[in-house]
Amino acid sequence: MGDYFLLGLLLLFAIGPYIYSIKMEVSVALATVLSLLLVSFWQEAIRVFGLNFQPFDFLSLIPLIAFEPSVAHRWITAAWLHSGWLHVLSNILVIALLGVPLEQKLGAKRWLAIYFLGLLSGNIAWVLTHAEDPTRCVGASGAAFGLLGAYMACWPRDEVEFPLLFLIRAWPVWVICMVRLGLEVFIMYDVSDHGGETKIAHLAHVGGFFGAYLVSRPIARSGPVPLEDEFEEDVAEGMPSIGPDPWSSVGSDTPVEVSRILGRLRDEGDELETRRAWLEELADHATCPECGASLIAGPDRLNRYQVTCSDDRKHLSWP
Fold first, then answer.
1. Helices 108-129/202-220 angle, 10° precision
2. pLDDT more than 70, % of the chain
3. Given a cut of 50, is residue 232 above it in pLDDT?
4. Cβ contact 225:298 at 8 Å
């Protein structure tokens, strides 16, 4: 009975954040971060209290038996187990910092589809190249690298705050991907050339990246934000006039910083790049005047760059 109780806790910690995310309509990327953290704390509690329960024995992916029907669940469950805190935190870093802005562009359902496709691609790459290996494989690294691959395929010039090259600053997505992927490939081949092995499944990371990279554009194309190369960035003709702003229109007191940005937008918003910059600044500082939700800056289906309500475009699509 004790084992069933501990297994039930694992399922609660793993699935609970997703149920909350769907019910409250909050970020599924952050729900994933919380899910991975809760399961990691659960693993740590089992170790600290010396409980006779070994989740690695029946939840981790083992290439040697991976295609046996009775262990099919391991292709998914292995992603919630990690070999240590450094392992899980390195994955959470990518999921939180790149996964959240990617979700804003894709929407929750498309984000989840790409996350699991990256996970499966990484596992497939590892199992097919280590078919006789009885070593257990765990972690969400394939899924995390899948998010990198999807972002690279769809919006490579987006800038995201990320710790890279000993600096924490806004880097273009293509730079983040090239450094992270390049490091994986370098380590993988360097170790191979010296006849050694590491305990890290680098090939699963690479497989997750390219698996998601190949399938993400068809998935993202039906999303709320056009792909990077599907709208013109250098043609300012046909831009809608700015006109009255929604914050003044509802008669509420506009915050000082928002008023300042709106003023600069009116003064300097006749050039496309300048307008984009101030609309992105506005999205960072303002909220929807109707529901208070956060804002997203990006092109709509008619290639007009706007700020929109993250909860419902009908609340706000301006200008």
1. 140
2. 88
3. no
4. yes
pLDDT score of 15 more than 50: yes
- Among 80, 85, 84, 98, which residue's Cα sits nearest to residue 36? 80
Nearest alpha carbon to residue 297 among 269, 277, 314: 277
- Look up residue 290 and give its two tokens: 């109707």
The full length of the chain comes to 319
Torsion of CA 155, 96, 84, 61, to 10 degrees: -50
Nearest to 314 by CA among 224, 223, 221, 220: 224
Alpha-carbon gap, residue 129 to 37, rounded angstroms: 30
43-83 per-position pLDDT tens digit: 999 988 888 888 888 899 999 999 999 999 999 999 999 98
Q: pLDDT digits over 115-151, tens only?
A: 999 999 999 999 999 989 999 999 999 999 999 999 9
Provide the mean pLDDT of the chain: 86
* Domains in the chain: ranges and CATH: 2-220 (1.20.1540.10), 231-318 (no CATH)
SS3 167: strand
Q: Do residues 35 and 17 touch, judged by C-beta distance below 8 A?
A: yes
DSSP 39-92: HHHHHHHHHHTT-S--HHHHHSB-GGGTTSGGGTTHHHHGGG--SSHHHHHHHH
Residue of higher predicted confidence among 253 and 113: 113
Measuring CA to CA, which residue among 8, 9, 15 is closest to residue 31? 15
Find tokens 């805190």 and name the residue.
Answer: 85
Give 287's strand partners: 294
Q: How many C-beta atoms lie closer than 10 Å to residue 240's C-beta? A: 11
